[in-house]
Each structure stands twice: as C-alpha cells, then as structure tokens.
Amino acid sequence: MTLDQLLALNEDDALIYIRGMLHGDKFNMSGYNNDDTPGTCVAHNMHILLKFAHLGIFDAHDFLYLDFYKGTGTLFYGADRDLCSTEDAFGGLGTKDIILEILKLCKSGPNRRRVD
After folding, report:
1. Domain extent at residue 18
2. At what angle do helices 40-50 and 95-108 cross, to 10 degrees?
3. In a domain, 80, yes or no
4. In total, how many domains does the chain have?
5. How far is CA 95 from its chain centroid?
6. What's the confidence (pLDDT) of residue 68?
7. According to the model, what pLDDT value does residue 7 have?
8. What is the pLDDT of residue 69?
9. Consecutive sets of 10 residues in the chain, 116 residues long: mean pLDDT of each?
C-alpha cells in the first residue's frame, strides 16, 4: 500500500491498516526510560515510526522526532533547517491515531527524497 492509497481510505479502514502494521506495539507516552539505560524511550518510539518508513513518513522532512511528556506528544519536524512542531497536538490520542496524523502531515509536505 502507498501513502496515497492509505489516505484515500476512510478513517476507520486506515486505522485498521495501521493497527495491523503495529502488531500490538504502542508508543511509550510517559517520556521516561523503561530502565536505567538512557534513550530507551526514544529508541522504542523510533522503532514504531520506522515501521511506516515505506509509506514515506520520513520523505517530506529532513528532521522528524516524536517526543512525549506525561502522555502528551509533540512532533518536531522540519526541512531546510526550519523547525516546526505540533506542540500538544497529540494529547489524548492513541498510537494508531498519532501515526495517522503524522502520515497526513507528511503527505502535505514536499517529497524531498531521491527515487532510484
């Protein structure tokens, strides 16, 4: 499935597809590491985002980082050193809903990656 095909689906069907890709994984929305090892929270959340790389989640922006603090997510993204954020835009949303919103955002950005 391509990003265009996914976003052409109705929202319920798009969320079903995303849920299937997640295989039960969820974002760590606490913002805290699971153990004493620094970076485990970020690595876990990035692993989930990478499951959607084939849809172009990273193609529209040079920088894409999702951060959580006590259940509220902020997406930092940018191109050409212009940093944007969706501060507090993901409060109250689940993992699949957040991913759908990120995919919509990526669709609205320019396709910046080379195609071989």
Report:
1. 3-108
2. 60
3. yes
4. 1
5. 9
6. 85
7. 94
8. 82
9. 93 97 92 80 90 85 81 79 72 90 77 53
Cα 57 to Cα 50: distance, rounded to the nearest angstrom: 8
Query: DSSP character for 9?
Result: S
The pLDDT score that the predictor gives to residue 112 is 53
Could you tell me if residue 85 is inside a domain? yes
Q: What is the pLDDT of residue 14?
A: 97
Secondary structure element (H or E) that encloses residue 83, with its range: strand 82-85
List strands edge to edge, sheet with 82-85: 63-69, 72-79, 82-85
Q: In terms of C-beta distances under 8 Å and separation of at least 24 residues, what long-range contacts does 20-27 make, across chains too?
A: 21/51, 21/52, 22/48, 22/51, 22/95, 22/96, 22/99, 25/51, 25/95, 26/94, 26/95, 27/66, 27/68, 27/73, 27/95, 27/98
Domain presence at residue 116: no
What residues contact residue 15 under an 8 Å CB cut-off, 6+ apart? Answer: 96, 97, 100
3-state secondary structure of 2: coil
In 3-state terms, what secondary structure has residue 76?
Answer: strand
Q: What is the pLDDT of residue 76?
A: 84
